[in-house]
Amino acid sequence: MECTADTVALLWMGRQLPLSPGHFTVSCFYYTIWNFIPKNLFEQFRRIANFYFLIIFLVQLMIDTPTSPVTSGLPLFFVITVTAIKQGYEDWLRHKADNEVNGAPVFVVRSGSLVQTRSKNVRVGDIVRVAKDETFPADLVLLSSDRAEGTCHITTASLDGETNLKTHFAVPETAVSQTVSKLESLQAVVECQQPEADLYRFVGRITVSLQGEEIVRPLGPENLLLRGARLKNTKEIFGVAVYTGMESKMALNYKCKSQKRSAVEKSMNTFLIIYLGILLLEAVLSTILKYAWQSERKWDEPFYNEKTEQEKNSSKILQFISDFLAFLVLYNFIIPISLYVTVEMQKFLGSFFIGWDLDLYHVESDQKAQVNTSDLNEELGQVEYVFTDKTGTLTENEMQFRECSINGVKFQEINGKLVPEGVTDDSPDGYMPHLVRVLLHQTCTLSSCFFTGEEELFLKAVSLCHTVQINYDQTDGPRDTFLQANGVSDPVEYYASSPDEKALVEATRRMGVTFVGNNGENMEIKTFGRSEKYKLLHVLEFDANRRRMSVILQTPSGEKVLFTKGAESSIFPHARSGEVDKTRVHVDEFALKGLRTLVVACRRFSAGEYEEVDRRLHEARTALQQREERLAEVFSFIERDLELLGATGVEDRLQEKVQETIEALRLAGIKVWVLTGDKHETAVSVSLSCGHFHRTMNILELVQQKSDSECAEQLRRLARRIREDHVIQHGLVVDGTSLSLALRQHERLFMEVCRSCSAVLCCRMAPLQKAKVVRLIKTSPEKPITLAIGDGANDVSMIQEANVGIGIMGKEGRQAVRNSDYAIARFKFLAKLLLVHGHFYYIRIATLVQYFFYKNVCFITPQFLYQFFCLFSQQTLYDSVYLTLYNICFTSLPVLVYSLFEQLVHPHVLQSKPALYRDISKNALLSFKPFLYWTLQGFSHAFVFFFGSYILMGEDTSLMGNGQMFGNWTFGTLVFTVMVITVTLKLALETHYWTWMNHFVTWGSIAFYFIFSLFYGGIIWPFLHTQDMYFVFVQLLSSGSAWFAIIIVVVTCLFPDVVKKVLYRHLRPTSTQKSQVIEAYPGTSCLDSACCFSEGKSGFAWLGRLVERTMSRCDLARVTSLYVIFYTSEQHLFIPSVGTPPNPTPFLVLSAVRNSSMQW
Amino acid sequence: MASGYSAKEEDGHHSGALGPAGGAAVRSRKPDNTAFKQQRLPAWQPILTAGTVLPAFFIIGLLFIPIGIGLYVTSNNIRELQIDYTGTESSSPCFACSQNYSWNMTTPCVCSVSFSLDQPFESNVFMYYGLSNFYQNHRRYVKSRDDSQLNGNLNSLKEPSKECEPYRTNDGKPIAPCGAIANSLFNDTLALYYNDPNGTETQIQLVKRGIAWWTDKHVKFRNPVGDDSNLTAIFQGTAKPVNWQKPVYELDSDPENNGFINEDLIVWMRTAALPTFRKLYRIIEKNSSTSPTLPRGNYTLKITYNYPVRSFEGRKRMILSTISWMGGKNPFLGIAYITVGSICFFLGVVLLIIHHKYGSRSSSADLTH
């Protein structure tokens, strides 16, 4: 988004201003039907590979090249089309989502009356009417609602997933304009900042002219109704549109996220460069050799093959360049054009499997896994560091009030009653808390004297200091009267953006101080049945830096009080009175139990004090510049000299299977770091309970470092301890302040300590610090792949920073989910996501990439070799149609299907043996060695194809039974046929998981090649000026020798590969290969013993037995023994099979092996 | 390959049972529990281990060795005789002809080469001419033809394709057939005589039909059809290729072998893959079941020496060969099969032994545990 004019947009109320069109230029990645083709083409050709092929295509058009432009034009067209379709589809989905909002009918005030129009026609400055349960068509500044005080409720579920009701306000001056006619007479100017994506920030001001007097009012997010949000509990509102269409915050948030590139893509680009080098080398070599040959006239221009006039006359240098380009074109297929499109398709289609996975589906919340970007699928298999948030990620984020400390006395909640510590309440009817609560409620009403003043004040503070909403929908209507008639005293439901607040408000209700609701500017609570109204003067919202929130209220007696609650570190320093020390001890005790603690305090204002507070608040809120800084300043001015009331302890349950998941990740070689905002003790106790820290671990601490030098000293001490004691596992605890010290000067030392610790816990972390830690690890010399997982807005920065960001669909809104690459409902799903899906995607894409380069080396090297036999005249070996279709038709589908369905190991095994993940770590399948192996294999296969055919035909004998001869096209076709078969079978050798689709495309591809060739060669093609291929294929197939040659060449190519695979499997098996054996049928699982031939599986069982017997190593009894041998890492396990072979249940096997798998 | 189909078990998912209770109106987002979506498609999962490939090794070995022997024997039974008549050496009978060469020689230069057959050639004998160092696969050469003209298209006859340059027109008249390939048609005439022991020389009947691909002769190459059935009239207004002595409609007296469908032309037009090639020239058919086609004895090859090869250091050969079902003499296939088969078999045995030892050692070690 660019803004050409000044940063402030001027709007006139009541009439449209011609100022706005053209004022902003929209530059988001949106296509329309009109600009789709040019814009998409431009985007695509910015990609280096596509650009390269475009150049090749243009070269072919310009100069006389051996292949027709079609050979590279058609694949390029295909690739561009497929990518365009994919991008068009994704854009269409966005459009569709947009149109739901865009096409909706909207009422706009125009020329004194309500006019219906479509929401896309809403212009900046229009006054829009929105009725209950409608969505807002644009970002509106609220002018008035049907309520006198000008408030309305909205939900922003579609924007950030927060389902709670939020109250938004109109400025009092406009709130009275509740009808169209009144609005028409309204004179006002709205000024606002330029459009910005942040949903929670808005700065503006409104100047209303009332009877010639101009009143300026600040506008903030609480005045802004966001497009896409929904009006609730309010009959209708009027608002003026300030950002419409592409400028609305919702649209800005659709902006293409920063592109993350996976490690596979990076190595793919490296390979591309290497191949580009090979290509250039081959082209240069060919050109030089061509000129070496041409120096003699008898080769350059023999009598039978004279040059044309044009060739004779053109300049030498031009000739040289055009020769070089021609060779470049001839060999250009070595860089596979279809690689990108296949990779795109694989990623796009493959990513569906994550969403479809039942194991990643959470029944309770009806959430399935969500893929926001398919570019990083394979990165899931490469993770080395996991950074996880604690609250809501490791824990349920389902808060339960447990304990509190009031004025230095510790209380526990037992059956809805606050009981001072030490007093045990063994009420027998714990099963019916509801009834008890009702009962208690009544007794408490009578015995409110039980509560001392402090306690009551504390409870009131807790029940007033929050931003909880009540859903009115449930309070009116017949259902409620029914409920109340039935005596169910639970008519209200609280909606809160923070679960802590909800838990606290619910807790005070149980204690007898009920929050009834806030209508308008009043908050109403019922203290033991007695209703009290507090006027809400100000809310000092929570923010992560301040780590506290406050409300300023006017009590029924007229007193002005500030209630504040927040983290103990942000309250204690400002507390002036109250039992600070005792409370501090209690808070620490709570934290040790793993409870989340909040400290509550209050401050009473004198009238003068309040006036100043009010004035300064107002000033800060209306400021147009640096509003946030000024607000923060004012807040800290207000929130001081506090009177400590007490502290609360809220329990957050661990999610299920967190311990197992963390353990699995650790076995997979992944280091888990917990980053949390919680305090040290809480974090450590949760870490211990979730298995992140073991009891046996030596826990090192780097906390409360005050100075730089002290921090360095401590770091050195820790490093020394780790060196001295390297047998035991170490865990490290760091807190936010120490971390920032450590990062400032001693990054390397800190990294060194961190890397040798098996578990690291960072507590008291600010959101940006989380991102910093992630970046620190990400950019360390080894460049490990990092994964961040979290559920809240405070995790967004780290999710965006990490290589892979995972959002938990939790209770803290959807911001994390929106900014993540993948979203899951529960932490435990991470294990399957990484160990199974990551593994699958990685092996799939890695083999896909290697295979693609391999098959194109096979394809083009014979072409290169042929030049040595045709005077480097750039004669193609294959026909143009074959050149074109090789990558598109003949060899494309098997590898695509492979890359969608391949599974090296059964998902169960992958999950039960996390160590298998190590086999693919560090981009193992795409490192230099496998790459070299594949490339050399490609070259050697190409040599076998070419020279196999050469020896067969080059002996210049007839290959046909009638003595007739073949020509050059038959030779090329023979090489091509052998190549298509070999390349397809090579993939078949790599395939471990043969579904019917693999069979279909593998054999189908070969069959298609034959059918196509028969068809292609069976017709005299009109419009083609050469008929080179006419009946060539049929003649080739009619030759017996050709068939024998095809078979022997294919076998010769693949045979060494099979031998190598077998030898490696036996001599140096990877753990993946071992687990394949376990997984397979028992009959095949005892392959290392020749005795196992007796299982009857092998057609050569008799031979095996023969050898066994002749060597008398294996008596018959052993051969037919009922033992099934399983091959594990170090030893064989003997498990008596149930009944005789062939088919003991694999599950028995799995469970047995799982027990033993821990050993290795 | 061992292992079999394993329809994967249901993984403990019971569809329907887990859905949100009572949510009849609310559509659950629960993914479908289908084998496809859960990546549980039934699949065959072969593992390449010694056990699975050993049988394959043995099968390949046992199949390939006999095949190879068969191919080798077949190839060895083929009789083949090559005679180089280039005449670059002064001792060669064709030395004189090769020296005084020019395309438009009026009196043909004829030379004779004598040779003898130690063994008779049974069944049909195929007569080839062979050229070396002749790059029929040069790109400029390969594309220098007009298939549409050769297919009898009248437009192309008068207006040949630009690819034919510089052999497209001569003196403003289109060349038929145009292009470098046609222009360089091999024009030596070979005749074979059998020297009877009694001194008489009998010419051996050479059949010139059946030397080109059937589809080329009948579909791909066609004479242009005009109002007149006379080829001479149809080719009126075209020029003969520069190097030819006769125009295309005078290639042969037989109308079925004249013009574009002349088989010598068709054979030549199928460009060879490599610079050393041979092309089928004539067929000597077996005419009696008792006597061999070419009996033992002395023969004379009479060459009307027209085709110059000295300028590019080429060689010319005449080849006589019998044919089996697999074509001419080609020992390579047989040797390749025997080699690969033996290696397979050998590796199979080695693997078997290694695995027997390896397997029994490790399993006996386990038994003691």
TrEMBL record, chain A:
Cited SUPFAM superfamilies: Calcium ATPase, transduction domain A, Calcium ATPase, transmembrane domain M, HAD-like, Metal cation-transporting ATPase, ATP-binding domain N
Pfam families tied to this protein: Cation_ATPase (PF13246), E1-E2_ATPase (PF00122), PhoLip_ATPase_C (PF16212), PhoLip_ATPase_N (PF16209)
PROSITE patterns: ATPASE_E1_E2
Cofactor requirements of the protein: Mg(2+)
PANTHER family: PHOSPHOLIPID-TRANSPORTING ATPASE IF, PROBABLE PHOSPHOLIPID-TRANSPORTING ATPASE
One GO term of the biological process aspect: phospholipid translocation
Protein name per the record: Phospholipid-transporting ATPase
Location of the P-type ATPase C-terminal domain: 817-1070
Domain (P-type ATPase A): residue spans on this chain: 106-191
Biological function: Catalytic component of a P4-ATPase flippase complex which catalyzes the hydrolysis of ATP coupled to the transport of aminophospholipids, phosphatidylserines (PS) and phosphatidylethanolamines (PE), from the outer to the inner leaflet of intracellular membranes. May contribute to the maintenance of membrane lipid asymmetry in endosome compartment.
Transmembrane segments: 20-37, 49-66, 270-293, 324-343, 833-854, 931-953, 965-988, 1000-1024, 1030-1055
Family of this protein: Belongs to the cation transport ATPase (P-type) (TC 3.A.3) family. Type IV subfamily.
Keywords: ATP-binding, Endoplasmic reticulum, Endosome, Golgi apparatus, Lipid transport, Magnesium, Membrane, Metal-binding, Nucleotide-binding, Translocase, Transmembrane, Transmembrane helix, Transport
Positions with a binding annotation for ATP: 389-391, 501, 542, 565, 596, 676-678, 764, 770, 794-795
Species of the source: Scleropages formosus (Asian bonytongue)
Enzyme class: translocase
Any one GO cellular component localisation term in the record: endoplasmic reticulum
